[in-house]
Automatic annotation (TrEMBL):
It comes from Halalkalibacter alkalisediminis. This is DRTGG domain-containing protein. It holds the Pfam family DRTGG. PANTHER family: CBS DOMAIN-CONTAINING PROTEIN, CBS DOMAIN-CONTAINING PROTEIN CBSX3, MITOCHONDRIAL. Keywords: CBS domain. InterPro entries: CBS_dom, CBS_dom_sf, Diverse_CBS-Domain, DRTGG, HotDog_dom_sf, Ser_kin/Pase_Hpr-like_N_sf, Thioestr_dom, WH-like_DNA-bd_sf. Residues 256-318 form the CBS domain. SUPFAM superfamilies: CBS-domain pair, HprK N-terminal domain-like, Thioesterase/thiol ester dehydrase-isomerase, Winged helix' DNA-binding domain. It comes from the Bacteria.
Length: 434
């Protein structure tokens, strides 16, 4: 039987897109406490099922597919620009295709405005109406209001009119930044993208005996299985080493490993890989917030996904991408790298930040080990010493030395120089992924 929390999520999922909900209405409809309703609504928001807007409330929105994540809903735009909805609240769940800045005469402007657009414009009441009639939502900059006629038209067409105190340039930059952030998120492969779903997962229950393990092993050729109870909640993992020497009538609960390490569907594949390598795990159960089994991920699938990601062109650039792209290999007889300190790499004092130094050391260590070993690495420990600050626009020279390179581990000493003077030193230890 589903828990109250799960019933609320199912209820929210069943609601029509655009429908407004509240903690009080959910609590009343499903006879649950307001605290339970609040927590379920927050989870629904994390899942992309609803969006909460100040002065408007929480509305059911359409969950976006991963490939369309770079598109924003009007509800998200309201939150991005800290806007106020003047009309057309019923259309906040809709997705915008692109935004158009109305900085020209009306006739010229309307050549670019289409249905599904967001027209960004100042206090031009006539433009607001014409934009709505063309099927576009309207974002008014400068904190201005609009006419009652335009508000009524927005309500009739279910197209939002939003007002923000920011100017047009700032608003465009904020929306662009939000889309850019979404593109970066799109590139991050999650467990949800690679998991073997529950219906395709081989598992055992707490009622089974070791005999069931032997049946599954013969049928599938696999040796590791999650163990769940009658409510589908994860209770343990069982592998070949656990059943070794046990009779076929032994209850599986007696031999399984209880309280196994798990991940959820929103965990990144990189984080899952780190756990699997660090703990020496071949199979990880994927669970929801109620610890119900959603499926499993294998170490092989995780590493394949990471290799695929590395071969894909990047659209959104993270700070780490910016830093690593500045590193140049200038090795001749000895290993040597060079990096220019750009404005993005500095702290509030205009000197290179601690986090950037850590990224430089990690990336140089990765590149050096790749010269001798195929695969990737998981950093175990970095000991870092700042000796002198490095100013913006400086050129740093990075000299790594491999202290030890085994089959599974590597130790690297890294020295950082500026104008011939040592400015930093680090010792990095890492596990190697085959």
């Amino acid at each position: 039987m589903a828990t109250k929390h799960e019933q609320i999520i199912e209820y929210i999922t069943s609601l029509a897109v655009g429908e407004k909900i509240s903690v009080r209405s959910i609590a009343k409809a499903l006879t649950v406490s307001e605290g339970t309703a609040y927590r379920a609504i927050k989870e629904a928001e994390n899942k992309g099922l609803v969006s909460t807007i100040e002065r408007v409330g929480t509305i059911r929105i359409e969950k976006k597919k991963k490939e369309n994540i770079e598109k924003l809903t009007y509800a998200e735009v309201v939150n991005i620009v800290d806007g106020q909805v003047l009309g057309g609240r019923e259309g906040l769940h809709k997705t915008l295709n692109r935004f158009v800045i109305g900085a020209m005469k009306l006739d010229a402007m309307m050549r670019y405005v289409e249905a599904g657009n967001l027209l960004i414009v100042g206090n031009r009441d006539q433009v607001h109406k014409v934009g709505l009639e063309a099927g576009a939502a309207v974002l008014i900059t400068g904190g201005f209001d609009t006419s009652e006629e335009a508000k009524a038209l927005a309500d009739e067409l279910a197209l939002p009119i939003i007002s923000t105190s920011y100017d047009t340039f700032t608003v465009a930059a904020m929306i662009n930044r939000a889309i850019y952030d979404q593109l970066i998120k799109k590139e991050i492969v999650l467990v949800d993208d690679v998991l073997i779903p529950f219906q395709d997962t081989y598992y055992m229950t707490t009622q089974n005996t070791v005999d069931k393990w032997h049946d599954l092993n013969e049928k599938t050729g696999h040796s590791r299985y999650p163990v769940i109870d009658q409510n589908l909640k994860i209770k343990g993992m069982v592998a070949a080493k656990d059943v070794l020497g046990a009779t076929k009538q032994t209850p599986i609960e007696k031999v399984m490993t209880g309280n196994p390490i798990t991940v959820n569907e929103r965990t990144s594949v990189a984080a899952a890989a780190h756990v699997m390598v660090w703990e020496g795990i071949e199979l990880l159960p994927v669970i929801d917030s109620q610890r119900k089994l959603l499926g499993v991920i294998s170490r092989q699938d995780v590493l394949k996904a990471l290799q695929m990601v590395q071969r894909q062109p990047h659209i959104g650039e993270t700070i780490e991408d910016i830093v690593t792209s500045r590193i140049r290999d200038i090795s001749t007889e000895e290993l040597l790298f060079e990096c220019e300190v750009t404005p993005q790499m500095t702290n509030q004092l205009g000197t290179i930040s601690y986090g950037v130094i850590t990224t430089l050391v990690t990336e140089v260590g990765r590149r050096v080990l790749r010269k001798f070993k195929k695969g990737d690495l998981v950093v175990e420990n970095i000991t870092l010493y700042f000796i002198k600050p490095v100013q913006i626009d400086s050129i740093m020279t990075i000299q790594p030395k491999i202290l030890e390179s085994g089959r599974r581990n590597g130790k690297i000493d890294v020295e950082l120089y500026h104008n011939g003077d040592i400015v930093g030193k680090a010792l990095m230890m890492a596990q190697l992924i085959d």
